[in-house]
Amino acid sequence: MKEKKLRLFFYPPKNTKNKYIFNILTGLKKNKVLNVNKHMSHSFFNLIAKILFYRFIKKIKIFHFNWILNFAGQERIKSIPEVWILKITIFLLKITDAKLVWTLHNKYPHETVNKKIVENFRRFLTYESDLIFIHCMESLKILKKIDSSIENKVKYIPMVNYIDVYDKSEESKEYFENKGEKFVLLFFGLIRKYKNVNLLIDVFNKFNYSDLFLLLGGHVADKNLKEYLNLISVNNPNIKLIDKFIEDNEVSNFMKNGDVMVLPFNKKSALNSSSMYLGLSYNLPVIISEIGSAIDLKEKEFVISYNYRDENEHKKILTQKIEKCYSIYKRDKDYFKKIGAKGREFIRKENSLDFIVKEMKSSYSGLLSRD
Fold it and tell me: What is the pLDDT tens value at each position of the chain, 371 positions in all?
């Protein structure tokens, strides 16, 4: 007997910032889980109309939301009415026996204006969701502070790896001459304030090693931040800032130019990092602040995590981590290749797309079986 396809409303249907959504939806489709929400909404009210259309006209029962907290992180003039409309919409879903699924990605939206509005909406989602997906165990601690008995509706699923996701470029490009003679720290991803790239450049500028380089790839989202990053990096020939979106066919080549990835994220908002798993997918050990994803892997030698209390301590500890990595490289130039290969093999097994989407499908089916 042919297996019946499971249909759901998945938001957002795509994410231009990384491949997370694309990977998940592609994997779900292969496992006969279809997203009826095919196109990005042109406006907030278009999104609400689509939700109501698919519930009341198309009779979709499962609604899975990612980054929905972002609506609460805007300026009050937008966040207050939009959150109230979302609450009413979710109430309509719930009273008609639809199932609400929510993935908790961050502590707060990264550019949160009013934390109280976010916290209020997060509390609402915690109680109203039928199923909550998390990508790190720190997320569970956040949810349990709201509802101590939450565990029965929380499902941990790992973040997916990026092995063999990006097309390999036909052209091999070296961003530095004689790459084999250099130790290159690499940052990859959309450059936003919470990622602390300015702090990373400040730290790097204190080093004076001729064979230590910093390669930064990603569009700088904020005009003022862009001007500041250019100002503090322009006079250092060992820093290269590629201020643009790295196209899919350029990613593999870009990653091959690094030895160690560095992600000094602000812990106040971040919980997970796709960039960490991208680096590990390309055999790169990762220096990363102790956000949730990093804490889960802190015992692994290929994740060089660290904690900090304030900006000064952050700079001091990041300096120490880079110094230590550089010293190891000088003693053994193959060391990071070896532990990077271990990292890739680990996430190949533990973070496979096939395993993750099967877990998600099983969870969706479990919701429908309760009826």
Answer: 566 789 999 999 987 777 899 999 999 999 999 999 999 888 999 999 999 999 999 999 999 999 999 999 999 999 999 999 999 999 999 999 999 999 999 999 999 999 999 999 999 999 999 999 999 999 999 999 999 999 999 999 999 999 999 876 656 667 766 667 899 999 999 999 999 999 999 999 999 999 999 999 999 989 999 999 999 999 999 999 999 999 888 999 999 999 999 999 999 999 999 999 999 999 999 999 999 999 999 999 999 999 999 999 999 999 999 999 999 999 999 999 999 999 999 999 999 999 999 999 999 999 998 76
Amino acid at 240: K
- With a CB cutoff of 8 Å and minimum separation 6, the contacts of 171 are 253
Is 298:182 a contact under the CB 8 Å cutoff? no
Q: Contact 272/135 with Cβ under 8 angstroms? A: yes
Q: For residues 279 and 257, what is the distance between their CA atoms, to the nearest angstrom?
A: 11
Residue type, 235: N
Tell me how far apart the terminal alpha carbons of the chain are, to the nearest angstrom: 23
**CA–CA separation, 294 vs 278, rounded Å?**
13
Tokens read off for 41? 């909404």
At 64 the three-state DSSP class reads: strand
Max intra-chain CA distance, the chain: 68
- Mapping DSSP to helix (H, G, I), strand (E, B) and coil, where does residue 83 land? helix
Take residue 125 and report the two structure tokens written for it. Answer: 């989602």
165: helix, coil or strand? coil
In the chain, the domains with their CATH numbers are: 6-160+352-369 (3.40.50.2000), 179-349 (3.40.50.2000)
Strands 62-66 and 99-104: parallel
Q: Which amino acid is at 16?
A: T
